[in-house]
Design brief:
homotetramer; alpha+beta; 5-stranded antiparallel beta sheet; about 25% helix; about 20% strand
Chain lengths: ~350, ~350, ~350, ~350
């Protein structure tokens, strides 16, 4: 409920800039007694880590997380969990161009308009580097919801979607693109290589699904589960669209075509479809919670773009240096983290009100 | 930041059920000294009011709002503004079927799973009737942002979009569908009549644009302007998708194709495109803020759908009685209200931090 | 966490002015399934109601509360509970004096300084009339904590304290002063009569105790149980001091004298003293939670007091019309309500985090 | 509004335990463009720092603060300010006794009751070590309110008060006790030496005054300036009572005796008294804001006290090792910090609503 804090009962607060000494997060409200160590968090950070393939930025950050508080003898104590990652590879480049001119599509102009000036080194606070702390916080959140399995994948890069007929869960971590479709992964390799060589960039769609969410999580009306997910996903850098279940496709459907009929099942109802994405009236139904997230292509491209300087003069800018040709790819662990954080928060909220 | 409260500095809280005695809202944090009377609010409620054409539910509600507090001698005092609308046309129908069986796609099952029981009369709290209070609160919010012009329209009903080549702002309020395209409006009339006769329903896409938003509103990272808008829009009944600017289309674009180049303008920069929807890094850029919202077709249809009873037995249900064949239409003033509420809140937040 | 909202998980929001059409509250986050009707709330309002004896203001308000939402078939549904009380006896007196001059000790000047103008009729929003809604909300909160017995009493009026050697719980509701000491009650009758005749006013100290609070409620560090109680109590009109346990007397004690030794008891520890007032480290210990609250004498007195007009001219003012000679008396049910509201909120918060 | 976060618009979140690797804070919502460096924060930390005289704990902590984010080229950027202090002197003592038995008056039992176990090293999260981060955050808050002068002093130690006839502002920083009365300071030296030698402890009263607060800060009803101060002060370790203005003494006064008459002054009204402590109706009046805070004697004493073990067995405990004989002394900079933090937050809130 605040500028740099997310969540209501399980809350996390992040701080830090792209080229400052460190980035950090405080996870507050975590239940006590959960096993937690750096080793529980690091694997998720490693999934998001830059510099691991030629398809991501070449910045080299080990992203080694340290737990500074809230854990004692290997278990959470219920007090705030301080997490810190030192920035290591802040390349001492010349920032004079980006300091004096606004990169279109970046936050440069908006930050200056709001704050009067900005930390322009690597995008400062607006850098996607902040998402590392979401991933770290998300790893803590996963501990709060052991009954839930959260997984995300890339569904589309640019104009190249996967085929769901080739969907193979086991493939997701077997390629550099979090693709569940190995054929699409091969195609994407070429597409991204081409974009990278051209100094261009590509958008992507990420899908995230949470299985095992029991019915009853979510807090109507303004903390609806879907509303919280929309807020959380839309706060991720470069995200421009969020869908729950069928999303915009639902707007094309008829009431009959969009129905999720129910039958008696072994354990509560069995649903015959999941157009709703596991949420009705803002509350989970027990079906998988499903979200689609659109990432725009990063605005860091080599093609010169018309822009203005801080002094309002016309100029052109092109982004040299290290960047992701498709930021959506590394968005996968971030989307997963936000899903876990929202669900964990709602689990605790539900427990608060309904026991 | 709470279940039935939205906003951070300018907050509103709603209460009330579809068939209870009244629905209400409390708008807190409103600046003092603004002219405000019921006459400022009623026109927006009238736009949303049911029973005004055959294309909406036939429930007859005058939706006459009363201001109970926070206004003195025609001006806001800075204290909470209590708003109340009496429910008038709660038809005393037989609710036994919906009480004992779950309507798929509605919140029936989810509410029962969460709360153990539910007010089943007309959907209780999960009814879109609550959105009247958002519209009332939104009318107050508009007073806070006189510099901004908020308007929304229906872009698509079912599979029938408007043509932007025929876009005429003046048409929006001239037809029962908030269509800026008079040709589409005629087509929709037939489409909805058909759906209504079949007891079916249709989805819709609503677009909302806010002009006059100065650069600098928005609060990174977790109160980003786009994040707040996503949260607010997704909390509206039947909404399943939210896009900012190009939204999912941005995922298909290249970095070049998605750029919003800037030139020196008369009053700050002139932008050559608005793929971003007026927001960069979570902060307004001065361009029109543009949101697209997907409404699903209502699940209240005459076709019987498989479902279960509260006792877990198999049954079928079909929704008799009054309902909207296309809830997205009446969503237009609600979407506008949420836009105004988010912007007003962010205006005040910006003033708090940046003076 | 907002201007007119109190609480974190169980929250209430109030609205309304002394001489507006109505005052109201929204209680949000209440657990579902609790028995609740107007009859559960009215007795607490009747305790606080004005005009019941010559020792309180002569304004006649039935304070009949209506539940507008959140209750179905006699039970809370988990949705927001709307509560409304119509104002009945807003005497149409001449407000020109108080409109144009500031009553020292009242909020008149401060409201004008903040908001630029004010609803001066009966104090507007700053009137203690608002506390009726706290009492109503508190009655709901009591339902959330059936394990807790909350009771308050007047310990002192002006310079006349009760004797604890005469403390008799059963006496509290047997006199007009909530005095557990019948001898003090008789004395107070004379003291207040004298003050009333002189057009003067008296301060009071109210003590509130909650028995049955289990160990473990409270949320360090900034939602400590004592911190929340201090905030809640200090927000009551005319309150100028709050103590937990021994309060300021603890500052005079030595560590030995302030110790609360523990012994093995039947049901957890048995404490040999309760200097701490039932709270350690911000968390309940299982002992009675004890708070002392200081009410100043109301500033509404007949003696002329030097002041200034809205235009900054020197003048004198004396308060004619109806007022309480000792507002602390009617503070008793308000203090109880705030205790219940804080405890109920903390019970739910504890359940959220610790299950 | 959360467990370890304080404030509404200017918020700070703290983390860290007494014997963990570090303690930290995140200050969020700070206005941009303020000059800020470690040198602005360190002097306040030095005032609170342990080990500087024989009258405080002998733990040696340099309390060197590092700014990790939110500052660029010497000025705040408007993004969250991360602050970190490494713990240096966590003495590797034997904690077996405090791990297995509860120290009465400490949070030991309450933490165990709430969380199931606890970090017992030096009190873990419940240690007053956390207050270092409040002091650091408070130094940032002071930058937000340059128009305000905040100062606190010790008014009483045990049963030994200062004489206000000897009050000398310049003396406060000239002795180890923050005493404005040099005679009292000499007396206290003996009193505390005696307590220290006896292994006993003493309570204290701290007074804090803020001059220069303009009229209009404060947000009725549940964010009243006095309510916020009460909450903030009562959240400090060992605090058991808070008074605004005359506090409990006001309860003894008559309406006439408690009046703060007003006269036309040069710059708004001139007040003839300040019984109210600078706050009316929850809003500042322009007079000095004055708070009194009661600190209990620490429960860390050498005299054995009856208690129980974690297993519920009877035992005795006495606190060996380093501790403050009078924690109230080092409370002075903490009280000042909370005053500054509340005022800065309310300044921004006021700006949000009232422009």
């Amino acid at each position: 409920m605040s500028f740099n804090t997310f969540g209501r009962v399980l809350r996390f607060t992040t701080f830090g800039e792209s080229h400052g000494p460190a980035i950090g997060a405080v996870v507050d409200g975590c239940p006590p007694g959960l096993d937690l160590s750096e080793a529980d968090i690091q694997p998720f950070l490693d999934k998001r880590r830059p510099g691991t393939s030629r398809f991501t930025t070449q910045r080299q950050e080990p992203d080694a997380v340290r737990i500074l508080s809230g854990v004692f003898e290997g278990r959470t104590t219920g007090t705030p969990i301080g997490l810190l990652i030192d920035n290591v590879d802040q390349r001492s480049k010349d920032y004079s161009e980006v300091a004096s001119a606004y990169r279109p599509g970046h936050a440069d102009y908006a930050y200056d308009a709001k704050y009067g000036f900005r930390d322009y080194r690597g995008g400062g606070r607006s850098s996607a580097r902040e998402t590392a702390m979401r991933v770290a916080a998300g790893a803590v959140a996963r501990k709060v919801i052991p009954e839930v399995r959260v997984r995300a994948w890339v569904e589309q890069i640019g104009q190249h979607p996967i085929l769901y007929s080739r969907f193979d869960d086991a493939q997701i971590d077997n390629n550099a693109f979090f693709s569940p479709d190995p054929v699409a992964a091969e195609q994407w390799e070429k597409v991204i290589d081409a974009a990278r060589k051209d100094g261009s960039s590509l958008g992507a769609v990420v899908v995230c699904e949470a299985e095992g969410v029991p019915p009853g999580w979510g807090a109507p009306l303004y903390a609806k589960l879907d509303s919280e997910l929309a807020s959380g996903m839309m706060s991720i850098n470069a995200v421009k669209g969020v869908e729950i279940g069928d999303g915009f496709a639902a707007a094309l459907a008829s009431g009959e075509g969009n129905a999720d009929p129910m039958r008696p099942g072994v354990d509560g109802p069995e649903f015959l479809a999941n157009h709703a994405g596991g949420i009705a009236g803002g509350i989970s139904t027990g079906q998988p919670v499903r979200v689609r997230v659109a990432f725009k292509p990063t605005s860091s491209i080599l093609t010169p773009v018309e822009t203005i300087t801080r002094d309002g003069e016309a100029t052109e800018i092109r982004t040299k240096g290290r960047h992701d040709p498709c930021v959506g790819i590394r968005g996968v662990p971030v989307v997963e983290a936000m899903m876990a954080l929202v669900l964990a928060d709602q689990k605790l909220l539900h427990r608060a009100q309904c026991g």
